[in-house]
Amino acid sequence: MNRLVKCGLENRIGSDCLKWDGLRERFGNEDLIAMWVADMDFKTPQPVIDALKERVEHGIFGYHMIPDSYYEAFINWEKEKHGYDIKREWIRFSPGVVPALFWFINILTNPGDSCIVMGPVYYPFHHAIEENNRKLIFNNLKNNNGIYTIDFESFERDIIENKVKLFILSSPHNPVGRVWTKEELKKALDICKANNVFVLADEIHQDIIIGDKKQIPAATVGDYDNILVTLTAATKTFNLAACQNSFVIIPDNKIRERFDEYFKSIGGDCGNIFGYIAVEAAYRYGEEWLNEILAKIKENYEYTKEILSMHLPHVVISPLEGTYLAWYDFSYYINEKDIKNFFQYKCNLAVDYGSWFGEAGKGHIRINLATERKIVEEAMNNIIKQLL
Ligand SMILES: Cc1ncc(COP(=O)(O)O)c(C=O)c1O
């Protein structure tokens, strides 16, 4: 824990945060350098803290309603930042993007149906499919020396051969860091539309854009309303995961009716008041903070590229176009079977192992760069020291 003090992260000590305080439970060692789960080591924007304080001072926490101003802040953000014109009546609540994935698999498919993902991909996608007794189909991305692209031919073939009913899109893509182009999105969605495949577009990382590419919401690239649901949130953007507040966007009346019916059947609720307060304040007043954080993440990423290419030139580093989760291929230096032993026991790091994201992730690790530079330096030094 001294490390956290030295690195200016004393705020995280004993705050019951999963990333650091959960190290013992998840990795069996509380002294690791935590660079795994996707949250930031940074304080949320001050206006969010102020808005929450003000509401706490109010002191009455009876049943609440969702204020119009919350919807207004989100709709404006989507329109101004992403060019997505969302109607108020399309929006529904979920405490998180992951719960919404589980719900929609139940709403849009039947047990035994096939659901497709593009591997390597965020592992809760796999869980949502398999834990609901659907068949998980991996259509792996093409990997050309760390640059990932969609294999459209095999994507369509896998859909047809497996009679796929639903596709979960990660955009930007966790863990390979791609920000999909309009052409890529359109091509994938056209294949889905032609084959009656529903699409869940998980766009939770939409605001974490590190490279020069522009993030494009899937819903804006064509007419896909009758197959597409978008899931997004302010929680990654402004480090508010514990506030449990996310957006489900359903432009199609029929899908919305099915969602509403399902939500009623599970006793769905609208979450807690603090999530709404935090999200609204973040969208209204958080942009400057976000720009500073993005610059920090980019610097951290550039630093890892520079130091690794200097000392370990055979590590393949995927371009970090989006997300704060960088993707490194260490297969030249380390056998897959030794990966955990190497990173956890020799380098003292808690990272996400590539194999968690599917077969195509083997040989890789995912490192969370939304942290202080000193943490990144210590991690890189530990790795380099072991391999030189
Ligand atoms: C692609 C992706 N979707 C969803 C989530 C989590 O969403 P939530 O906390 O809203 O359930 C994450 C968090 O890492 C993620 O990377």
Automatic annotation (TrEMBL):
Residues 37-382 form the Aminotransferase class I/classII large domain. Its EC number is 4.4.1.13. Signal peptide: none annotated. Its cofactor is pyridoxal 5'-phosphate. Transmembrane segments: none annotated. Keywords: Aminotransferase, Lyase, Pyridoxal phosphate, Transferase. Belongs to the class-II pyridoxal-phosphate-dependent aminotransferase family. MalY/PatB cystathionine beta-lyase subfamily. This is cysteine-S-conjugate beta-lyase. It comes from Clostridium saudiense. The lineage of its organism: Bacteria, Bacillati, Bacillota, Clostridia, Eubacteriales.
